[in-house]
Write a structure and sequence with these properties.
By secondary structure, the chain is mainly β. It contains two helices and 14 strands, in the order αβββββββββββββαβ.
Length: 298
């Protein structure tokens, strides 16, 4: 009879215990927090593509990028070292989710600028979001002389626009993946067979090898019948090395350009023929102004 009475009262005892625990958390003032995912990639570029990352608020990210000539040039061309192209640029974080950037490339003497905004952040806890999502818009101006100077040329013919949606997820501490639907608009194209608006889909992933090393790969698929036959899809593989304030990105790619319109619509080299370029991006960050100290009670 005594055991039957204990079994009957046990659920009530457990309920009262849980209520007491919740009351205790309330008394301690503990609330469930939102934990945002960080470091999906080591830099705000995967290789040529923009990554899920944005530059932090009030931080200037100075970038120096090189692409050498094709390695199939052999010893005569020092395996591409004699034909280097360079891009110098700087990215700045206006907020932790909004950044801007400017750059100048020796490839076609091109100036470019962009705005990038992260409107969804992957998170767990009180607010759960399974993915991160960003938008990026860029404009480029090609400044080399017109191919046919005798005809009437317009300044607007030098302009290019790129609009990109970046969606991705950090699946674990080691693996991240993203896709990038992209539209490239060109005011002037070389032939009537080419489209002014070019649609493409970029795909990129990262595998973290150690605390300082990560392996990256990316591929940009251009939908068919938009470009001339001599153009190829861009494909790249590389290694990120993080050393405190620097990130060194070493890679092989079949793209010579280092801005979006060039990488997506003007890649001519073919991996199947060994026409890959060795290249690197060097990133060095500077904090422009220290964060304000919080007010403290005297």
């Amino acid at each position: 009879m005594r055991w039957i009475l204990i079994l009957f009262l046990l659920p009530s005892i457990l309920v009262f215990s849980q209520d007491d625990e919740l009351d205790l958390l309330d008394l301690l003032g503990e609330e469930e927090t939102t934990d945002y995912t960080i470091a999906s990639f080591k830099a705000n570029r995967v290789i040529n593509l923009h990554s899920l990352e944005t530059t932090s608020k009030r931080v200037l990210d100075v970038k120096i990028s090189h692409r050498l000539g094709v390695v199939t040039g052999g010893l005569q061309e020092w395996f591409g070292l004699d034909q280097a192209t360079v891009r110098l640029g700087g990215d700045y974080g206006i907020t932790d989710q909004l950044m801007v950037g400017l750059g100048r490339s020796s490839f076609e003497k091109t100036y470019d600028g962009f705005v990038k905004f992260k409107f969804l952040r992957q998170s767990t806890g009180k607010r759960k979001m399974p993915i991160s999502a960003l938008v990026m818009s860029s404009m480029a101006i090609k400044t080399i002389p017109f191919a046919v100077p005798e005809r009437e040329n317009y300044f607007s013919s030098r302009l290019y626009y790129v609009h990109q949606l970046i969606i991705g997820r950090k699946f674990s501490d080691a693996i991240s993946f993203q896709v990038s639907p992209t539209l490239v608009h060109r005011n002037l194209v070389e032939t009537l067979q080419e489209e002014n608006d070019v649609f493409a889909l970029g795909m990129a992933g990262r595998v973290k090898l150690t605390q300082r090393l990560a392996l990256n790969a990316e591929y940009i698929y251009v939908l068919p019948d938009q470009l001339a036959d001599r153009y190829r899809n861009s494909a790249s593989i590389g290694l990120d090395i993080e050393t405190g304030g620097h990130v060194f990105q070493l890679h092989f790619t079949n793209s010579t350009a280092m801005n979006e319109k060039g990488v997506i619509t003007e890649t001519v080299d073919d991996w199947s023929k060994g026409d890959a370029h060795f290249g690197f991006n060097v990133s060095r960050v500077f904090t422009i102004r220290k964060k304000e100290k919080p007010d403290t009670d005297l």
